[in-house]
Each structure stands twice: as C-alpha cells, then as structure tokens.
Automatic annotation (TrEMBL):
Organism: Streptomyces ferrugineus
Signal peptide residues on this chain, from the entry's feature table: none
Matching SUPFAM superfamilies: AhpD-like (SSF69118)
UniProt xrefs under InterPro entries: AhpD-like, AhpD_core, CMD-like
Protein name: Carboxymuconolactone decarboxylase family protein
Pfam families, alphabetized: CMD
Residues in Carboxymuconolactone decarboxylase-like domain copies: 25-96
GO molecular function: peroxiredoxin activity
Amino acid sequence: MSTARLNAFEIPTVGKFLKHIVSAGKVVHDSPLPVSTQNLVTLRASQINGCGFCTDMHFKDAVAAGEDTVRLNLVAAWREATLFTEAERAALELTEAGTRIADAAGGVPDEVWENAAKHYDEEQLGALVSLIALINAFNRLNVLVQQPAGSYRPGQFA
C-alpha cells in the first residue's frame, strides 16, 4: 500500500490529537529516562504492534542518536541477546507486558513491575510507563490508518 487510509495531517481533529500526543512525547523525551532506553522501548512496542511506520521511524531515530544497529537488530530477540543491560532488559520486559496487556488476565505481572522498579527510580519509572502508553497510542493510530513505512527521515517531525 502506498497511501494511508486517512491523511492524519489534513484532518483537524486528528491533527489536534497528534499535536497533543507529540507534546506528551517531548515531556517523556526530556525526562531522566535514558534516551537509549526510550529508543529500545519504542522500537520493541512498535514491532509487537506490527506498526511498520513506527518501527521504521524509531529504528532510524535510534541510529541517528548513535545507537548500535546490532543492538537494534536484536531488540525483537532481547532475551537471547547479550548486548542489553539488566535495566534495559527490565524496560523491555515491562514494554512487552504493557503492550500485550490483553494477553494477561491480570495485566502486568507484579514480578515484571518489581524488576523494573529495581532499576529505575520513581521519576524514570513514571516516564517509562508514560512512554509505553504513548507509543502504543501512536502504534494503534498508524496501524488503523495503514500509514506506509519506509520513507521516514530522522528528525522529520522535530
């Protein structure tokens, strides 16, 4: 598919909505949660949700920020990879649990939460939770409208 179902930038309601969630994204980006962790989280959630546009965007933005492409390539298989810190593993585990929330009858397991809380203070943990919620909102919007992937340029929406 070469075009989206809707042009989100031309519809006033969607444009206003996007303006607000982009602003929320800036708050998280400027938080004390490490940018490298933010990049891993947004990439992993986008992979899980099958959002090609966001997967493309977050991969390219992470590379532009200096992230190693081997680490990015292994995000989908982070459990078997040796390139992630324990804190990053905890963030990726929380990302998966928070993204696949409907798959678990009790939501995010206490063990997953407690593991993340061992590695991040309350401010960072709050930013991590906010980021997981935010990327899932972006993913769902882009998947719903079938936003095409591949043409994103790093910093395009800055």
